[in-house]
Amino acid sequence: MTNRLARETSPYLLQHAGNPVDWYPWGDEAFARARAEDRPILLSIGYSACHWCHVMERESFEDADTARLMNERFVSVKVDREERPDVDQIYMEAVQAMTGHGGWPMTVCLTPDGVPFYGGTYFPPVDRQGMPSFRRVLLAISEAWRERRSEVLESGREISSQLNRTAHLRRAQTLLTDEVLFSAFHALSAQFDETWGGTGGAPKFPQPMSWEFVLRFWKRTGNDHARQMVDTTLTRMARGGIYDQLGGGFARYSVDAQWLVPHFEKMLYDNAQLASLYLHAWLAFGAGEYRRVVEETLDYLRDRMTDAAGGFYSAEDADSEGHEGKFYVWTPDEIRGVLSRDEAELALPYWGLDQGPNFEGKHILFVAAAPDPERIAGIRRALFETRERRVRPGRDDKVLASWNGLACRAFAEAGRALGRDDYVAVAVTNADFVLGKMRDRDGRLLRTWKAGAAKLKGYLEDYAMVAAALVDVYEATFDRRWLDEARGLADDMLRLFWDDATEGFYDTGSDHEPLIVRPRNLFDNAVPCGSSVAIETLLRLATLTGEGRYASRATAALRPMADLMARHPGGFGRFLCALDFNLGPVAEVALVWPPDRDPTPLVATVFHRYLPNRVVAGAVVGMGGPEMAPHSPQTPGSGPGDPGRSSGIVAGHGAASDIPLLEGRATIDARPTAYVCRNYTCQLPVTDADELARQLDV
């Protein structure tokens, strides 16, 4: 017997389809019943890779007595926070206002009009450690709804008045100068763990946006401590248990301060952002270990987390066979059963199995000393192949537009920087998939896709992150289509989400369903907020296209954030990166080449160095001037190694001369030629890679 959730596509909702709870998905049907029967809404929010969400399901939602109480006294609504970040944000803010903290699973009681009046996170099945049992909570809420309605409604009004306070953000008094960057860096530096990297103590999250900012700060200032902070953090994480030493990819976070014991779920957004971060650190510092982590992480996403249609899946669970981390841990005897005696003698100390168990009597693999990947490669492969025969953790196979944007961008950037045409091909396939399968008939970007069906109107973060990715796909291929598509999304983003009154973005579009407030998130959390990525993307597009309104909207939205960025940098990492770009200088690079000449030396010179504030345009030069690169999905062999293989104007698309960076650019002596400009000043065009390097490294 299943409930209404059996008709949904979200893996998280489908996990609850067999519960005895009479679950509704979020929608008008649930609220209409609540109004008709004068019942409160019991809203439960979680996600498929959430360990404690699974625990609460087993303890409470699968319990017949608890389900009966829910069915008799409430209208119960289950929401996947990853599908509906708008609903999650509104009611998480309410729970934080009520309790001072938040998290998942999240339980919120609402009036039939959607107004929250009680909330919390996990509730146990029996009274435990000062927490009331879930049934005790349900009975108390039901009694209050029946007997003390006026108190309940007043509580709801008080909570509602506190919601969406960020919508009234006042203009900052601090100017957008590099003083904001210095203040933010010093605040992060004060929290830095000099021994293990990261900030603070346990638990520790990777925080890739913060380290992207610190890396940019090092590039801007040459600050040695900034370099040390990035290097220590990335090295410790790469050698810790938070990194899957056999299969690549990072777990969500570490429960300790040493990056040793992870919460084993693997999220697409973490791994996409960390692959980009390690790529940038490799470009900056040249550490081979960082390049290896990039490739292992992207290989994991390509091989394990990619749908045949081209979309990236959302997550892998922490649990398998009902136990957290069971798929990942080992015993020494298991290692010896796979390897020869000599191999085991090398493997056991290499991955710390000679230091005693570190997780429930077993071992999480970590690199106990300096890594030696070549020496350990065969052993790693043998253990990986053995582990592949275990029962894998569950996988959330829905495709989310925003998270796909993060991953697409990582593949495009890495493909170009590493000379990996296969990575560029993955990015192009994904971009084709999102634009082809995740838009409605009117071109409206949609939030989620699964098993051939896309639904839910896209949020600001979806538009911003996909547009950002398309800019990188353009730079990886010089196919004009991707720049045009990025501009189209940017224009739609301004039309749907921009608000002139507040000079900022809302997270939901003007065509979105009415909610009790229109959410406007201004914090970079595990996933960057839509506003910060929108600002960064508009600034990049403004430089590439010369479109002044992109820059004016971006700076208007960035300006009120100055005080917050300076004082609380941990929550504004992507904003700080956008500010760094805004302050410049930005290297504007134009590459042109004849159809019969290979521009690889110049292309490699541009992309094989750490230049975070850079935009690049490229085109084949024909008899009439610059032409656009061919409109076709990139395949291995037609990528960064030979971007000039084909030439010609594609019907229905504008000429590359529409791109200001390419206007009037001609080759010198019919050779591939580069033009570099900064601060409204251009250097002499060059055809020599060494001379181009000197101009870029100024």
Structure report:
With 698 residues, the chain is α+β, with helices and mostly antiparallel strands. The protein has 4 domains: 4-163, Glutaredoxin (3-Layer(aba) Sandwich); 178-317 and 396-583, Alpha/alpha barrel (Glycosyltransferase), CATH 1.50.10.10; 328-389, no CATH class; 587-696, no CATH class. Helices cover 46% and strands 12% of the residues. It is built from 25 helices and 22 strands. Strands 1-3-2-4-5 form a 5-stranded mixed sheet, sandwiched between helices. The protein has a 5-stranded mixed sheet with strand order 20-19-18-21-22. Strand 14 and strand 15 form a beta hairpin. Helix 9 (208-221) packs parallel to helix 11 and helix 16 runs antiparallel to helix 17 (421-437). The longest helix has 18 residues, at 268-285. The radius of gyration is 26 Å and the shape is globular. The N and C termini lie far apart (68 Å). Residues 628-655 have low confidence and may be disordered.
The portion of residues forming beta strands comes to 5-15%
Domains (count): 4
The secondary structure category is alpha+beta
- In terms of per-residue confidence, which ranges show pLDDT below 50 for 5 or more consecutive residues? 628-655
Supply the CATH architecture of the largest domain: Alpha/alpha barrel
Q: What would the principal axes of the Cα set say about the shape? A: globular
Number of continuous helical runs? 25
CATH topology of the largest domain, anyone? Answer: Glycosyltransferase
End-to-end CA span = 68 Å
- DSSP helix fraction: 40-55%
Please summarize the sheet with the most strands: 5 strands, mixed
Rg, alpha carbons: 26 Å
Oligomeric status: single chain
Provide the CATH top-level class of the largest domain.
Mainly Alpha
What's the number of extended β-strand segments?
A: 22
What strand line-up does the widest sheet have? Answer: 1-3-2-4-5
Arithmetic mean of pLDDT: 92
